[in-house]
C-alpha cells in the first residue's frame, strides 16, 4: 500500500481523496457549493509535493481573487510549512503581471512599469479622448474583452499613451502576455515547462482572454486541474463564458472528471433550498447535492418582509444584535447565543449580501445607529486617493504578495493617523518614509505592498480575521462562507436585477447569483425584502423576487423583528427562525 504522510489526506472523503490523488493528466472537478472543491485543491497540491516528488516551483495555482490566493497560500503553508512559499499562487491578473515583469523588454515595457488602476486609466483615457465623458466611452469600447484587433484609432492612441507612460492597465495584464506567448511558441513552451502542474479554481468564470492564456500555458494532456461549478457562473455580464468549463473534455480529451456531491458547509435546510432555487436553471444535468455536515436540528430559513429599505436594514441590525446577545444595542441580561451549545457567534461570523452596492447605504446607517462594527469594500475609494495613487503609479510593482486585508487595514490606519481629510493629505509618496515601515508592518517589501494596492479587487478589501460584519455584493461573496447570512433585497427588479423601465436581463445568471448567495450560509439564512424601495430617486413598489417562489415554504418561516428578537425562556437555546 502506498505510504502516506500521516494525516495529509485524512481530512478528505473518498471522492475528494480520489481527486487529490489523481495522477498526471488533465482533471476536471465539477461540484456544487460547499463540497470541498477548494479544500480538495489545497490537499491535492500538498499531496503532489509531499508524496509524488513534484517540486513546489513547478506548481501554479490560480484563484479568482487575491483574497482567495492569500487563503490558499495560508492553507498550503499549514500543510507544507517549508515548501509552500516556493509555489506560485496568484490570480490570473497576477500571473499576467508576473509574465510581463519577466518579459518586459519583449512587451515593450520598462523593467519598472506601473499598473494603472481605474482612476489613472480614466485620466489617461480622458487626456487622449479630450474629456472625461469621452474618456469613459473610450474605455467602454476598449473593455476587458479579448484582443481582436478591432480597436479603433482612439483606443490605439490610448494604448500608445499608456506605453509612453510605461503603464499597463488591467486588460493589458492579460492581453499582452497572450500576445507574447502566441507570437513566440518557444517562449510559451518555456512557461509550460516551468509550471507542469497548474490548478485553476472557479474555472466556470474564465473569460476568453484568460482562457487563451491558460491554453497557451497548457497542452491537451497537461496536468491541469480545473475546478468549478457551472451553476455558480456569475460573471457572464463582463465576458466570462461558462462554455469554456463545459467543453473542458474537448479541449483536454484525456481529462478525467470527478464529481463531489456532499456539502459540508451548510445545514440540510439551506442545501435543500439552494437546490430548489437553482433547479429551473441548472447547467449541471442531474445536479446532486446533499448536506452531510454535522448540524443538529437546523432552523428554518427566515423570510422578512419590510415596509421599506430602512425598515429592512433595521431588521437586519436588530436580528444581528439579538443573535449576538444584545451586546451592541443594549446590555440585556445573559450571554450570547451559541451554536450547538459551544461555538460563540461573533460579528465576524455574519455577512450581509446584496445585489447592488446602492443597497448598502441603508444597512450602513442602521449599523452605525446600532453600533454594529462592519467592513465593506473600500478598495476603490482607497486607490482613488491621490497620494496612494501617485505612489502606486510611480514605484515598481511586484506581481506577487500575500497582502490584502492587512494592506488595507494598514493604509486605513495611516490615513486615519495622518489625514484629517484623507483625499488631501495622505500622499504616501511625499511621505516616503512612512510607506516603507507600513509595508514592513504588513510583512512585505515595498514593491509587494504597492502591487497589492494596485491589484486589489473588491473582495480583497475584506479582512477575514476582523471581528466585523461583512457587507458584500453577491458577486464578491464567491467562494466565501459565513455561519450567518442575510440576503437583502429579494425583490423583483433587484434580484433578478433590472434597471427601472428596462427589459429583463440575463435571468439565469441572476438566479445563479441567488444560488451563490444562499450557499454562503452555514447555519442560518435570512431572506429579506422591502415593499417600497427608492430607485433612481423615486419610491418604487417592489414585488417579491420570483426566485423565492422556488423554495418550498416548508423550509422557510416568516420572521419579523419581534419574533427575530424574542428570547426563549431560560434553559432553552434561543433560535432565530
Ligand atoms: P464553493 O463552491 O462555494 O467555492 P467549495 O466546493 O470550494 O465551495 P470549500 O470551501 O472547499 O467548498 O469547503 C466548504 C466547507 O466544507 C469548508 O468549511 C470546508 O472546510 C468544509 N469541508 C470540505 N470538505 C470537508 C470534509 N471532507 N470534511 C469536513 N469538512 C469539509
Ligand atoms: Mg471554493
List the helices and strands and how they pair.
Layout: H1 14-21, E1 27-31, H2 37-51, E2 59-63, H3 66-79, E3 88-91, H4 92-102, E4 114-115, H5 118-129, H6 132-142, H7 153-164, E5 167-168, H8 170-183, H9 185-194, E6 197-200, H10 208-216, E7 223-228, H11 243-246, H12 248-251, E8 256-260, E9 262-263, H13 268-278, E10 290-291, E11 301-308, H14 309-323, E12 338-339, E13 343-344, E14 350-354, H15 360-370, E15 374-376, H16 379-384, H17 386-394, H18 405-418, H19 422-425, H20 432-441, H21 446-455, E16 469-473, E17 482-487, H22 507-518, E18 521-535, E19 538-541, E20 556-558, H23 561-565
Parallel strand pairs: 1-7, 1-8, 2-3, 2-6, 4-5, 6-7, 9-10, 11-18, 11-20, 14-16, 14-17, 15-16, 17-18
Antiparallel strand pairs: 12-13, 18-19
Helix pairs in contact: 1-2, 2-3, 4-8, 5-6, 5-7, 8-9, 8-10, 13-22, 14-15, 17-21, 20-21
Bound molecules: adenosine-5'-triphosphate (ATP) and magnesium ion (MG).
EC number: 5.6.2.4
Keywords: ATP-binding, Helicase, Hydrolase, Isomerase, Nucleotide-binding
Domain UvrD-like helicase C-terminal: 268-577
